[in-house]
Amino acid sequence: MRQNNSSVRKHLGLKPATKIGLTAFRGHVDDARGMKEIEALLEKGFIPLAGNFGIDGVIGSVFNYNDKLPGKLAWVVGTYDPVVAGTTTPLTILDLEKSSDESGDLQLMRALVSRTSAPDVHFEPFPEASVIDFSEEALRSMNGRWGGKGRLTLIGDAAHAFPAADGQGGSQAFEDAIVLTRLLEQGPKTTIDKVLEEFEVSRMERVTKIHADQTQRFANASKGKMVPWPQDFMSW
To answer: Which of 21, 47, 154, 209 could bridge to 158 as Cys pair (CB 3.0-4.6 Å)?
Structure first.
């Protein structure tokens, strides 16, 4: 459930997600093998490129799904600057003239984006990114869960939207779905209310840890580079 459209949050009386001013474009190359400019990214880990590429107000990442989908590279490029429909594109955001990057990362990112064509790139930006407050103050008011009540719960971005750092928002949404499904599959050992409470409580520690990590990574990425995910994020 996308946090920008979460009617359940409103029904439960929860604070809405807060927009953070970032608008992003996404795309992917199905098979980068044999593509001279970008093939090397397949050998550089799970997140071979990430950071602001020497441009203030820009954030971007590349994801290497080589283990499961050999050759596939996905990317995201975001900006805090106003986005003009039909004019702003990932390549106009990754402006060589505005960049102080001397590492060659910006050229690699531009090459990857240039190799992406419809329908594998979203030429219209995604809605402005939003986050759910998981600050220490907010956590104290949550009482060990993120806001479900009775027979209602939330998952994914509607429950714990992260800053758009490096894809953990989607990962945690899948984990939510798996944990909730497993609990429901146990059958009528207790009430639905209790199952949903157990679901949220069981997820809070991991989600809170990753939310804090992504918040810090997002702040760092808009200033420079990000480091890869810690191993415990990937070995859940």
So the answer is: 154
